[in-house]
Amino acid sequence: MTTTPGRIAIVGASAAGFAVANELRDQGYDGTISLIGAEALPPYDRPPLSKRKAIDIDDIALADLGKLEALDLNLCLGQRAVGLDTIDKIVRMADGRAVRWDACVIATGADPIRIPGVDSVLRTMADAHVIQSRLDRAGSVAIIGAGVLGCELASLTVSMNCAVTVIDGLPGPMQNRLGTSVSDRLRRHHEEAGVMFRLGQTVSDVAGNPDQGYRIGLSDGGTVQADAVIAAVGCRPATGWLKDSDVPVNNGVVCDENCRAMPGVFAAGDVANWFNPRFGRHMRVEHRMNATEQGMAVANQLLARGQPFDPIPFFWTDQGDLKLQVHGLVGPDMEIVRLDGESDDKRFVLAYLREGLIEGVLGWNMAQMLRKARPLIGRPRAAIADWAK
User: Fold this and answer.
1) Is 315 within the bounds of a domain?
2) Who's near 92: CB < 8 A, 6+ residues apart?
3) Which of 219, 223, 230, 333 has the smallest count of CB within 10 Å of its CB?
4) Residue 191 structural domain
5) Alpha carbon distance 6, 286 (integer Å)
């Protein structure tokens, strides 16, 4: 017989961690929930930070003060976890305090990769405020990285009448995720808005400061001059605080199909590298929807009501007047088949296939048709002909 834990510690107070706590209470759990977060702010939504300027915490909070009080949480905000003892069942924090638990959920997310000489990255509200203050007085901006975040920042900064240069070692923006043809279309989309690209180039050095501007050296010997520089070269799962524990870590916290890393320890959100039985492989998904869905799934596992977590991943990105949405898995090495769209490539839906099986669908400003294409995921190529009728 499974016993529901009396004390649950959730390490990480962002979308995934909050989803665990909220679902536990919604399901009637009346035990102690400790929600531990490194930021002093209450839980908030991160995606808007790269899409809108002058954001206030009230605009993106996941719950207002009344809702947080109703959840009856032991809030440990502004407290960074530095260690996890799975024998004595303790979360140790930087100020020396400890939280005891019967079950623990690791939801610490991911940390941005930093570049020497660049002090602007975007992960937290504090980061957004620093970047905003610099953009307000910048005429030119260099963004290092042409992934999802870099492209969103490019759209935001060019809308603020800044001269924007995006630098990336790949031949095209988001090419390692979307493939060459969609990457080429994405590049044209940004260039039409005024963004400049230096692609196929890595950064050799960065010199300067916010007051005097920056000089960015490139691998081909060229340079980029800018008043502000933002690094957007990806994230690593925030697992450093687990180095002295026996929690399995490999590109995140390694979990089974139930998001369980070991007895009594679960993971959710960007930090979780779990086995998705739908696709038959481990995956770590840095998508906003996954954080909430996985947090809810873990809550139900804690209450012994859960099922294996086997979602079809979903992500979206807003870049200017472009809404790009993806259901399932897409990649540069996959076959791409056009399902629907306009001849000028302003709206289209694509299917991504691996070994004749549809693993993902992508929509470019075509959300309604994309939803109709979603059931194709997991089906063979022949299903496309029937779907198109």
Assistant:
1) no
2) 81, 82, 83, 84, 85, 98
3) 333
4) 125-231
5) 30
